[in-house]
Design goal:
binds pyridoxal-5'-phosphate; four-stranded antiparallel sheet; globular; 13 helices; 14% strand; alpha/beta
């Protein structure tokens, strides 16, 4: 970068690099022949009707049809729901609304979803870390010990990429410790895959709880960028101060409303059921491979595993046009890879490649004898 541009760039941004999203690592334009199991997307899309009748008009800031449908789906009031450009925008709005740059901090519990820290970094907001415990449960005591020192705590259940859940009792303990002091954000991006574990029922009891949702995962709509922030009406009003004037494009609202209709919900539940069946099948088959150890729990639409041949395996799969996600740089996830569940055919293709890899390529006899 030229000197003048570099010195013009905000000081806290100079050292940052863009988020290495799954899509940035391998562009969608790289063609259909690849099998995409790296972004926790749904392997298949539904079809929708989109009318162009109102495309000449600015859309409503918060389209009634979408809020109403999401309220019915969650059993909440529309006053408790903000519709956003994906859950990622929800994360950003919370940080912009409740953290003061160069002054406030958020707290995260790694290994977890990367965007909490990245969003904080781009707004010059500090990031405190309380790592998960050995079994990937939240270190409740340490998180509570930071009450009063951080403005926002980010929790994720099911957690990406460990697939683990946070029991209600732990969330409530943290909410209580942060009462009157800070927000507790519970990211439920994968909740459709563990639907009975939602903690939306806590919203009535705790005015410092915020829940993040998305249509990207269970609803198979990552391409439309639609998410939700669930909270008290008072928190919603603060978020509306910082949201863009037209965050939900009209075609997005049309598609979201159809996805949340009775028929849309039925389609979603059928899809989630078959992905969950595939998740179990894939996990069991991976678990039967001696060089592979499953890591965490399987409460989302993905499996995390450890293999000491992680980088060779990753490269072998890329060479064979199957893309999964490297998680080995994350805290506690040395040598770990994450697979998003695909169609049965894609999962079979992946499995047979992995089996071939371990049968033929991997592994020198010496390495074979070591414990994995
Ligand atoms: C995918 C994901 C998101 C982002 O969802 P979008 O609505 O697509 O922005 C948020 N949180 C977690 C944990 C995720 O895995």
């Amino acid at each position: 970068m030229t000197d003048w541009l570099s010195s013009l760039t905000c000081e806290h941004l100079r050292e940052l690099t863009p988020y290495e999203s799954a899509r940035r690592l391998f562009a969608a334009s790289e063609g259909q022949q690849r099998v995409w199991l790296n972004a926790n997307e749904s392997p298949e899309s539904s079809t929708f009707e989109v009318s162009s009748e109102l495309l000449n008009r600015y859309p409503d800031c918060q389209p009634e049809s979408v809020l109403k449908a999401y309220a019915a789906y969650t059993g909440l009031q529309q006053e408790q729901i903000v519709s956003t450009r994906g859950a990622d925008e929800g994360i950003e709005l919370i940080i912009r609304a409740f953290c003061t740059p160069a002054k406030s901090s958020v707290l995260i519990c790694p290994p977890t979803y990367g965007m909490y820290a990245i969003s904080a970094n781009t707004f010059n907001v500090g990031v405190q870390k309380v790592p998960l415990l050995h079994d990937f449960s939240v270190d409740v005591e340490q998180v509570c010990a930071q009450a009063g020192k951080v403005n926002v705590v980010f929790l994720c259940s099911p957690n990406n990429p460990t697939g683990t859940l946070i029991p209600s009792a732990n969330v409530e303990a943290i909410l209580t410790a942060y009462s009157g002091k800070g927000l507790v954000v519970l990211d439920e991006a994968y909740i459709e895959f563990s639907a009975n574990t939602t903690q939306t029922n806590l919203l009535d009891k705790y005015d410092n709880l915020v829940i993040l949702r998305t249509l990207s995962k269970g609803f198979a709509l990552a391409g439309i960028r639609c998410g939700f922030v669930l909270s008290s009406p008072a928190i919603k009003q603060v978020l509306l101060k910082v949201i863009a004037p037209y965050p939900v494009p009209d075609p997005v609202a049309q598609i979201a409303a159809q996805a949340l209709s009775r028929k849309g919900l039925e389609t979603m539940r059928t899809r989630v059921d078959s992905l969950s069946t595939e998740l179990i099948r894939l996990s069991e088959s991976l678990n039967a491979i001696k060089e592979i150890t499953l890591v965490g729990k399987q409460c989302g639409n993905f499996v995390l595993f450890r293999s000491k041949h992680n980088s060779e395996l990753m490269q072998y799969l890329v060479n064979n046009n199957v893309l999964i996600r490297d998680q080995s740089k994350q805290l506690m996830l040395d040598k770990c890879l994450r697979i998003s569940i695909g169609t049965p055919e894609q999962n079979n293709q992946l499995l047979s490649l992995i089996q071939t890899f371990f049968a033929t390529q991997a592994v020198s006899p010496a390495a074979n004898n070591e414990a994995v």
